[in-house]
Amino acid sequence: MAETRRPEVDVAIVGFGWCGAIMAKEMREAGLRVVALERGAMRDTWPDGAYPKTLDELTYNVRHRLFQDLSQSTVTIRHNEGQQAVPYRRFGAFLPGQGVGGAGLHWSGCHWRVLPEELRLRSHYEERYGRGFIPDEMTIQDFGVTYAELEPHFDFAEKVFGTSGTAYRVKGQVVGEGNPFEADRSSPFPLPAQKNTYSAELFRRAALEVGFHPFSIPSANTSAPYTNPYDCQMGPCNFCGFCSGYACYMYSKASPNVNILPALRDDPEFELRPGCEVLRVDLDSTGRQATGVTYADAEGNTVTQPARLVIVATFAYNNARLLLLSRIGQPYDPRSGEGTVGRNFNYQNMATIKAFFDTDKYVDPFIGAGGNGVAFDDFNGDHFDHGPLGFVGGSPCWVNQAGNKPASGIALPAGSPGWGAAWKKAARDAYRHTVSMDAHGTNLSYRDCYLSLDPTYRDAWGQPLLRMTFDWHDNDIRMSRYVTAQMEKVARAMAPKSINVLVKQPGAHFDARSYQTTHMGGGAVMGTDPRTSVLNRYLQSWDVHNVFVPGSSAFPQGLGYNPTGTVAALTYWSARAIRGEYLRNPGPLVPR
Amino acid sequence: MSNGSLPSDRRGLMKLGAALLPALAGLEAGHAGIGRAEAGTPPAAAPAAYAPGYFTATEWRFLHAFCDRLIPADETGPGAVEAGVPEFIDRQLATPWGFGKLWYMEGPFVDGPPELGVQSPLTPRDLYRQGIAAVEASVRRAQGRAFAELDAAARDAVLHALDKGETDLGPALPSAYFFASVLQDTLHGYFADPVHGGNRGMGGWKMVGFPGARGDFWDWVDRHDGRPYPLPPMSITGRRA
């Protein structure tokens, strides 16, 4: 185990998922020498998504081949400060990634733009509903960037991802049957919306019948062949149903590997080093400037990589961990409310309805694509009057049939047995005849939900695991129950034989055992006030100006939508600030 | 009971292929209430004899008798034994998963609220070894013979007690956890691609109508007529059911 020091580069990027790949491309376009350090293995369509062996549910969905190696590192979880946190030993509620492409390789592909009001959530609610409307314990705040500022970056990210969708309004003109609640766009989607599955079509018809406004989910799964601005090519999605959890064998699902890496791979000024676990960002003696990073390589050597600029682009909550391990910023203390690193950890707030149809009606849930489906946004954001309801937040509702396969479990009507002859009949009668729909809601931020370093458990390199202190709050449960009741009207309008409504009961605790989403956020949030944010509005550390931290870690609270589209736009926004002002005049882009 | 209802189950056992029968000689199972209709599927070609790599002969008999009740053979579709689930589980126990290498296994192992997930130090190999021995001991104490020697109704009663957490398997292994683990592995073996040793003849897929590794539904996605996708299942190997 030698200690070595590598020659200095301009930019060291920690993590090669979407954020790392976007930053690498942008920094190369700025002429900087870039090294990207990825803790996991090299991954690409070949061999990791090669047909036909990728069509293997056991290996990919059940044994989680492409996900984080929990044997080496995980997180610990507790519901509150009174509990001892225990390790997340096996996959359940969330599925973090590892390896080149990160979670961007095995994601689904729902590709959204954040709602304008969600970027200024506290201001918006205070303006419309008054200051007293937001509960004291709720620490929601504004992002510090507006939709208008991000719009060009949403637009470009969609062109990089090859996103399929139907626009509603472009440059102020209504152009199509997209989401009427959507903010204005500067151009249509690069590809038309995908075809819909039968389940999504049933949902669309029922939502119209109930009086809601259904539209096709913007999908980073291609509806047609596509070449992106980096000359990376994609083939049309064929709805194979092996999408979430898999590398796409058809080059149809946007990923850092398919949509960006081909433009970097042969660049001599870019180097991607897999198998490198970054242990810390190194600081100079003042603690105000980063000098590079130190990592453990696959052979167990400790390597120092000097760099003039460090991009912390790990998976979501791990950004807060690396800042804590590097002593960048002040750790959050929930008692005093002081400190920022780890503050405002947030998640997603899911509810699901299963609609079971007669056995002569085939929905065939194995047909699917990760980003495909039909949604309605009538109860997302502030598209409905929260005043009489008394809660903050909302949910898009959708059928998003990504491809349901039987080894991962077959949903059965309530009261069905779990084994034996009666289970067999129930499984046979349900599998091809069930429509699943979700209310994919906001989880807001709270004083007592945060990230810190665990005092007991360590990773394979001897470093403390990240500890999540997290539980559901009444506001979010009430929101979810309200919106799920609206979605239930749609489910019933589909005239199924029976339905199961899976929604949190009042007082429910966070359950880490069964999958919800992998949409974690916060812990290193952006904002306008260094007392309540780790990063300024350009994702630059308030404390160490040559450290930038892109990711959903920057979200001050959870969104109604999936995060990736907003993560990508924020990363381009940050990259352009680096390429413009920061490189001309390295230092804080916003005065403290 | 041991003589009462053999014929129907004997036919089921025949389907396993002669090679497995010696291992199942002690299994005199049957349930008069479930007549085994021929499910319309020809018997799969007799599989080559599979010698378990992990399980002992006693455990192997136990596992067959256990899986046989989790997914019994009947007119709905093949049973777990017929589908090769025991072979699947044995083969899985030789993978890193079997050794607990896909899980965070550093101590201390402290029980938290159940919602925060399993905190057991047992690997799947440990779980099967300890769990089978403990269930066998419990059955022997109560009934004076091996689990595999019980008839179907008696085995079902054992499974229900395990499922409800009512059986004492020692402090390290709550019986509901043992039961849920074996059930989960059985379902995985019943529905995973046949390359992993289970789902023999794609029988699990045929039962529910999953077409397996077809990997292309472009022509069917927007038919929207509620009629079934028409083609039979296909394995990763390209073999069609």
TrEMBL record, chain A:
The keyword Transmembrane does not apply. Residues 234-346 form the Glucose-methanol-choline oxidoreductase N-terminal domain. Keywords: FAD, Flavoprotein, Oxidoreductase. One of its GO terms (molecular function) is oxidoreductase activity, acting on CH-OH group of donors. Pfam families: GMC_oxred_C, GMC_oxred_N. It comes from the Bacteria. Residues 447-570 form the Glucose-methanol-choline oxidoreductase C-terminal domain. Belongs to the GMC oxidoreductase family. This is GMC family oxidoreductase. The lineage of its organism: Bacteria, Pseudomonadati, Pseudomonadota, Alphaproteobacteria, Acetobacterales.
UniProtKB/TrEMBL annotation, chain B:
InterPro entries: Gluconate_2DH_su3, TAT_signal. It holds the Pfam family Gluconate_2-dh3. It comes from the Bacteria. This is Gluconate 2-dehydrogenase subunit 3 family protein. It comes from Roseomonas acroporae.
